[in-house]
Amino acid sequence: MINILLSTDDNYVMPTGVLMTSICENTKSEVTFYIMTNADFKDESRSSLKRNIAKYNQNIVFIPVQPSATKDFPFGRPDQPTHVSVATYYRLLITNLLPKNVDKIIYLDGDMIVMDDIADYFNEDVDGYAVGAVIDQDMDENVKDERLEYPKQDGYFNAGSLLINLKYWREHHAYEEFIKVMHEKSNIIIFHDQDVLNYVFHDKKKWLSPRYNIQTEFLVAKKVARYGKELIKAIKNPLAIHFCMRGSKPWMIRCDNPFTEVWRKYKSISVWANSPLQNNVSGNLKNRIRIFLVKYHLWKETYYLTIPKIEEL
């Protein structure tokens, strides 16, 4: 049994469902999806996610989270990102929310797709570690001034894709540690639960291959040059693609990520096959210019243009 943890609200149902489709299409094993939602999650949304995976005979469990569970968490300050909801903190609650017999689980953000059997990821050995994780695309920026008050050589991971050792979390009272950090260090928490997870687990994580979390900027030429052969190998054999560029998502009309058409392939076999793409054409002028330059290969510092074309992967 492979356990997968997702989080969504009514506005993110379609992307979450497409992610689930990609997992079901590529995974041979039995899967249980645990889906954390806000307390007023609509019955219609719940029903659509169930219908979407019905043909795969996989399992789905919904876990409603009450507003009181996150009411005191650091959120909404001017120095914090505004494009996420307080639901991003749900991950920190899982030792209290998930069944006690679940000792290991994969967490994935909703703006991802899976392109290979997710058992490869689930079967990674994280005994003795709190999480298995991939470096964050902005790791250098997040550790350079030791903002989170731990040695910068410990690095900074992206929390959008995590192999979580729940047994370790319970045995080491991780939830209590999270609460303590958010109470005592709230002033240094900018990237919400991702900062909290890095603070608590900075020396308790296992670095995993980038193939488990190919973030958008990993496809940028300068990042490929920075991380070298391991990243090139991962790009050519990806398991999970993470569309983490704000304002450029594959369900939007304009998305310049090279894996956009792969995401749309999975949408076309989901229950949202006929749902229109969102209109982002009239968005930020700078972003529109960037997309135009990338499309016509005029901006050499954007995507790593020497990787195989998507149809060759």
Automatic annotation (TrEMBL):
* Residues forming coiled coils: none
Name the keywords, alphabetized: Glycosyltransferase, Metal-binding, Transferase
Check the record and name the InterPro entries matching this protein: Glyco_trans_8, Glycosyltrans_8_dom-fam, Nucleotide-diphossugar_trans
Q: Which residues form the signal peptide?
A: none
The UniProt entry, under Pfam families, shows: Glyco_transf_8
Question: Does Repeat show up as a keyword for this record?
Answer: no
Q: What is this protein called?
A: Glycosyltransferase family 8 protein
